[in-house]
Amino acid sequence: MYEQIVIAGFGGQGVLFAGKILAYMGMDTGKELSWLPSYGPEMRGGTCNCSVIIADTQIGSPVIQRPDALIVMNKPSLEKFVDAVKPGGVIVLDSSLIDTKVERDDVTVVYIPAMQIAESAGAGTLGNMVMAGAYMKAREDMYNIEDLYRSVREHTPAKRAGLAEKNIELLKAGYEYKQC
Amino acid sequence: MEKIFERPHSLSDFVLSYCPGCTHGVINRLVAEVVDEMGLEGSTIGVCPVGCSVTAYNFFEFDMQEAAHGRAPAVATGIKRVHPDKLVFTYQGDGDLAAIGTAETIHSAARAENISIIFVNNTIYGMTGGQMAPTSLIDQVTQTTPFGRKVENQGYPIHVSEMVSTLKGACYVERVSVDSVPNIRKTKAAIRKAFECQMAGKGFSLVEVLSSCPTNWGMSPVEALERIRTEMMPEFPLGVYKDCTETGGVR
Amino acid sequence: MAKVLMKGNEALAEAAMRCGCRFFFGYPITPQTELAAYMAKKMQKNGGTFLQAESEVAAINMVYGAAGAGARVMTSSSSPGISLKQEGISYIAGADLPCLVVNIVRGGPGLGGIQPAQSDYFQATKGGGHGDYHLLVFAPSSVQELADMTSRAFDKADEYRMPAMIMGDGMLGQMMEPVEFKDPIDPATLPEKPWATTGTGMKRKKNIINSLYLTPEELENLCIEREKRYDKIRETEALYEEIQTEDADVIIAAYGTIARVAMSAVEAARAKGIKAGLIRPITLWPFPEKVFAKRAETAKCFLSVEMSMGQMVEDVRLSVNGKKPVYFYGRTGGMVPEQDAIVAEIEKCLKNS
User: Fold this and answer.
1) pTM
2) What is the ipTM of this complex?
3) Which residues pair with A127 in a beta bridge?
4) How many distinct structural domains can be found in chain C?
5) Touching check for C316 and chain A: CB below 8 Å?
């Protein structure tokens, strides 16, 4: 496998953290991986993205030109990246934050109201986890969701174990979400 | 025959490169005497500047580093952090310390860096041939102020001891002079106090020494010493500007 | 020890402490921020000194003092800050002091930008400061290599008594990859530096750290002696990686993170039936001249790909020495060459040669 994932949204939505847990899962399952954030003054409030590559072979460019997967949490980011996604790729889109549809028929699109799901679970800031869970479902042929749960637990400091479980609850909500 | 007077061990037999009548040599010697008397010859690291004392690493007989222009306090900081138990001092002129190196001077004092600075103020750039210094007096004629230093063009001289003494990190600041024997004795006492302040871990010390430059002032050595008294001292009054050595220091 | 996921900037800081560096003097600048922040957090626990200086100028002179006092010492900055440090670096080279300077390069000239760039190649490899001197310049392309090169840079700096530089770009500093560290060493076990100013202890003659020599003959002799050392380094210390160059018609020259984009471009070109290869210099000084000269016998042309307006390309041309055409493709100002664009350039080069 050579999975190139772009996660994009506004600063503060947990874009970088969502990428980080996928990276940890990659590392813990013995894959090659890289995690590259966009950085700069636009990181606070402006658009923000990170590129994660999980692969069986050595990783070339850490910069992703054509993602296999796009996890997107705001409209400007969708507009920026939608055409770059490889044909046959997957787009996971927070439909509670983005009111448009993807006008491409060569990619799989998962519409999930991640923000709403997170809010109704009393964790409005964890839409990123719902999105990551939905991505894991879309790529269930590639990953085992239990590996992600394990990595989240393992890399959360013991004193924040409660937070890890909350993250996992939202990951699960995203993973088990049925698109209507 | 009994030897009743000799060169301090901390001073080498290298011929000093200072001009005849210049008081740098006196100040070099005072530093060496104090190091000897404190028994620190083997545990002293000095830093010399760019200026007339640029080759002072040849004159002192202990470990020395030569710093870039103005950077001696930064170099001394690096040394002191590696060897906190050693005596680390800089020996700097007015151009080095109060022009290009002002930031390093102020910030090493503000950090309460446990080093000592021997600051030689002769109101002129000596080595480069007598240009205006940050401490040059109003109306002082130099190569770059041929009609005298004028307020409207070059502003005012900097008062280093006064300025540094406003910083909480400075433990001991005194201005002295080497124009006369009594003042030379006071200068030696001040240098000793600064080094003792450091060895007791009390923090930053600076001794400003009013010094002469007969060559670039265009005076005889005796006239030059007179100028220290008549022109420099009114602008740069002697005295202790800060002393926290009795109260445990500033660290 | 197990692999950990870390940003390049942090991995460098951790690697430096593990190989015995206990003194860091720096001044804040993007995008090397995490390096200093990590040092600030960890150095004291390690019994070392982290000091935020009043300027880059002061920081590099603190490095001079500490290096002259015998310590394993470093500073880090980014392009505009590295320009400010050049005077100090020249003095450090002139006084034959070992130290590590890290440049996490951003776009320039002037204040430039804060996005990744490689436009400080000339500054790093052709002097930077005044006088006849060189730095050992390492240009790692992954977080693991960054960690490995850190201890190598310190060791080689000590061995040759000269400053070393690690040149990364903002991307390498900011990206996270798994990294495995060597076991920490005790600084007390590092080789002794009998030339350092540590206080004579009345047991030896005084040591002087200095770069001033007023007698021309003396200064020339020192420069000649230093050049002999540089020649030995040119002969023995050049590092590089070759990828698919054996049968390559077009060989890309690229270093740092861009070498990884180039590697992907080589694969994409091969998939199209183009025989492409890559030489990745790992040391920029000494430049791995010989491998370029060797491959000039078999390749049809070379293409230097950089995040600059064309700097390393000059060294590639000198090494290829007119035998084959050497082309250049670059983006600058924080723009990163894309894989497709590099493939297109490969095709163009082949057509032209």
Assistant:
1) 0.95
2) 0.94
3) none
4) 2
5) no
